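Data availability (excerpt). The following record was deposited with the supplementary files.
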Amino acid sequence: MSGQIIGLAPGLAPALNPWLEQTGTSAVGLAVRDWTLGRYYHAVQDIFGYHALQLGASSLETLANSRIAHRWVAADSTFDANATFFANASALPFFESTLDLVTLPFTLDAHSDPDAVLDEVARVLVPEGRAVFVGFHKLSFWGISHMLGAKRLPEGIQIYGKTRLLDSLAELGLVVDSVESSQSPGHGGLYFLVARKRVMTVKPIRRKAWRLPSWSELPLNPFPNPTPRPNLKPPKLKPK
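Predicted structure:
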């Protein structure tokens, strides 16, 4: 699949990779990169399956320690040399229930339609499949400063937030396995969250539940069926 162009559709903020690739002690993205890779390194090694996908932030090798054989990195730009193929995260070229693991490093913060991304993730995950997120806290030093117009975070970032993510996951039927936060100034107030797609069990419906009630069973039946009375014969009169 390497080198194959699936489709192009802008969605992710293009300034995220350069921000994470900055070098030097004064680079603000360096600590974020190290903290993120450390969490992914330990999280993905215990997730098994056949197919894994990374959405966005292709400069972060979130699947480097994964034991899953088939691993891809999706990007939305043909100029991204780290990508395996090109596709919009809100319109993935996979059938329903085909991926065992999806990593989303800052994908919800960097995408123009994060809710559509979550819909796609829930669609392509197999039952018991995992989605692993990293994002910025809204109520953190970096989050508040970003909302006030500071230029510390990459251009185009719109913080999705952990609270909103938890609500969206619950609506989509994904449960949270673990969540970790870092409020260190160097890390910028990050969260790391592992979610799992629940196996939806359908309770069988008994056929009797769909039987229409008879008139005698209706609570307001004005003409109840009369209770049958025993067939009594009139007594014989003895002659006087």
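Summary of structural features: The chain has one domain: 4-197.
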